[in-house]
Amino acid sequence: MFVRTIKRIIIVGVLALVSTFTHAQQALLKAADHHFENLSFIKAIDAYESALKKNGLGDTEKLDAKIKLAESYSKIKDTQNAERVLREVVESGASLSDNNVEVYLKYAQALASNGKYQESQKMYDDYTAKVASDPRGKKFSKLYNDVTVLSKNANCYLVDYVTINTNSADFSPTYYQNGLVFVSNRKANAGVRRVFNWNNTPFLDLYHLEDVASLGGATASLGGGGSGEASSKNKKGGSFAGSDEYTPPSANDSRTIGSYGGNNISAGLGYGDKPITESERFDGTINSKYHEGPAAFFKDGQRVIFTRNNFLNGKARKSSDGINKLKLYIANAEKNGWGELAELPFNSDEYSTGHPALSPDEKLLFFASDMPGGYGGTDIYVSRLDGENWSAPINLGSDVNTKGNEMFPFIDEKGNMYFSSDGQPGLGDLDIFFVQVDGVTPKGRVINIGSPINSSKDDFGIVTDGIRQTGYFSSNRKRGGDDDDIYKFERQCELKEGCDLILAIYDADTKMPLDNVTVLYEDSEGNLQEGISDAEGKILITDLADGEEFTFRATREGYTANTVSFSTEGCDNEPSRLEIPLSFPVPEISEETVAENSTNSGSQSGMGNPQTGFSESGYTSGSTSGTGVTCTIRGRVLSQSGGSPLEGVLVTIKSECDGTVQTAYTDLSGFYEFTVQEGCDYTLEGNKDELASNGKKISKLSCAEGGITTDVYMFTSGDVLKVENIYFDYGKCNIRKDARAGLDKIVTLMRQNPDMKIELSAHTDARSEASFNDKISQGRAKASADYLFKRGVSRTRVEYKGYGETQPVNGCVDGVDCTEAQHAQNRRTEIKILQLN
To answer: Cystine design at 326: which of 89, 255, 354, 531 (Cβ 3.0–4.6 Å)?
Structure first.
């Protein structure tokens, strides 16, 4: 009895602990959700992280918590942690419902913000496969195939980090009298500042720099030559990302794309966090206890339109869902400050309006809003001033606005517009774009102004002249997050803003890229231009005139020249791609050769059975280096998966001696047979609907045994093919030279089957730690996939994954003694056919 009582006490105690733990877990999760719903993202992050560290959450609760945690990190611009959490979600294999499918989009955006364009491209492709109606996936994926197009003007610019910046947010400068008015959340010298729950930072106010002449800057060259003391301290390494003083090198640096986040502020190079040039908090009647800014001033300085939370005459108002939205206000200059503050008539308690910009004649007001009826998050609208009345806003339309966010418009002295967007294809987060505007109507295409003004981080709030010669803009590239800073730029050469085109030149037979191909074309002014293809067979041509026809003539020694026409009609921000195949010349064929080959071809049949096969001959060359002795090549065509014979497959054999082509269909048993010449090289291929073959190469055919017997294997969707001879050094992921032949076979296969999609997988044996094998196999799979991408295989056609030691082809697992040959069977690279046609 005593023992039973003790057991009952223990069981009840354990259940009580479990119940208490579960209750505490749920309370923590509930608190996290409360903070998230109230837009207190810093608090939400702490609560979600704590809840996820504890055991006891169900799979659905854990998935929901991680998605909200990632969204919270995204809201405070912590893209590194957003990427980390989203990677966990995507790689967990969790089923993402329609409500959560935007996880793929958010993950792609976080990767791009962190400069990981290749990974981002793959994730955009995954998003497109699930949400085909959203054009962002295709547009961003196309751009990330070659982002160098956005660096074509990089050498034109010098960029300065100006001396009014602090370690707080400083952004969105606008011209006012002889100085600048900008937005900042720097701490006031006295008094208590309220904190914005979103990210626990002070509310934003407007600040004033009286004279821009006092505004200094430590010049940093991003693609340009640079000048000044700070620039001279970093001559090493050339003009590429990571070579400027406030952008440290990273694994994602390239020699062409702008700049990423930095942490070299303390390196003594003039990029400190303390303002050298003093500025003052703007007039107190405009600044309040809520957010203010950005603003736009009329030219006479007597009126201003500015952004503020919904707060007027000491009274704040909220929307029906409890949020204090943004509104646009107008104020008049008075003797002792600004007065007569009033709302603009199209404001609403239910949506936000902000980011004002005035046209040169001050009759049009451009602004951003998330009012109903838009295309996405925030759109850009325009309202016309008629006397004292503002018209109903007009949406600028789908050429400008996207499913993402468009904001921070600026109208230059010619009436054209700059704005920032994360929905137009760019380098990551917000990029700055330009579009010509005729009154209230956008004209022409929207242009991404590229690096170094744009980066993988937020770039916004630009002000400049009519030719973008000089100006200011804002960016958080230095440290990311809320660390926005103001930069000054100066252009030193002519801009290239025409259409961009990538020429991809390859061997028409092998489908391999061709380097050192000369391409000639005439530009829009009739000048002859020349380009030379690189190791990947590519030539990037920028600044082609829009809406014109161009003719490209490609030549290379040993190949027949090829001339291809292309129209730039309707080009966009992403470079177009034009493929140019080059072939070997076709010699003239003598009548004697035709007669001889016709005689040879007449003796062929499909295993001698006219009911199950036939043959044809074709001619591409008039010479042969064979011995003149003939024999047979015979065999069967079999399925890759089960080895069963395949009837009705069209088998093609091509002689490399004289280019002769013969064909035959397989019989009921899958047999084929051809008569061939000794001493020649031959290529065998099989062809049938829904099937493809890897082909067979036969070198220097010998007729000593009366010929040879060789089988051809066909595969289809779902089949797995082992790729031979892809070697890696122990513990390394780089592609060795002797591994390229195996990978080149995959490239050829992908080119022969242009609709085929594959999963490329890497496997190890079980002789190291499982975690090491997982990591090394993933690295090798990625390296192999990158090899394919560099040779023109689209990223949309290849998935890659490392499986480590988890899928052995034999019993050689941990604890089992195996021979080296058995271990070698498990160290393999495979491709799984995901789609054939």
So the answer is: 354
